[in-house]
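Hey,
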Amino acid sequence: MRRAAASVIATVLLLAGCGSSFDEPEGDALRVLSLDQCADQYVLALGEGHELALSPRADDPDSWLRAEAAGHRMLRPTLETVVAWAPDVVVRYWGGDARLLAQLEGQGVTVVTIADAADFASVEQSIAEVAEALDRQTEGEALIGRMRTTLRDGAPSDGARPLTALYLTAGGFTSGSGTLIDASLRAAGLENAAGHAGFGAVRVERLALDPPERFALGFFDQTRADRRGQGRHPLVKRLVEDRPDVRLPAAMLTCPAWFMAEAVPVLAGLRDAR
């Protein structure tokens, strides 16, 4: 315990000596800390005018707003660093261990946790909660409005027969009912061929016997990931080659956020594909 306390104190003293990089924000600006890559997206989209500290993965290739992350401070979400930086608001999806979260709670810091989402109404709720914590309600409403417009752009015409489509990752996983992928497929007028709830592993034998009419491929842009995954199985590859497919980039899929709606017009293209 003494060693941990000494570490915290040492880090605080070290960072306190770093000069203007840790000066107080100007005016009404808040000091906002993101604890993980998903939270980075929300903070970047809604935190303009505040002093932001992002996670170390904010500018990774699978970060949707990686370009916007340029120029912002990135901090490892350790207890010592967070105590030293003294945020007003913390936004997280999965980031932060129990010790860190307890410390923040004890200091009275506002912590907003982005919830998992099974539909776009839940995404709207997350946007509204982060926007309120950052005092950016107008920006949050505008972001929700843009998401709704994108969803309308991909909606099918009434009476169109829903084609079956299977979402498949390079690692060989599918996404069934109760997931945001399922909500995206349905919003695009497609019938999810997964046949199960939640996430699950694909069975290549079953896929060969009862293939879907269309494929939606996720994370295949990460060429070094899951190189031996079932999604890259030779039989699966042949099935995909024989049917229309779309590829959804990893950056679109890693967070329950508004940009998942961008998948809907892309998926809608499968309805008319030949």
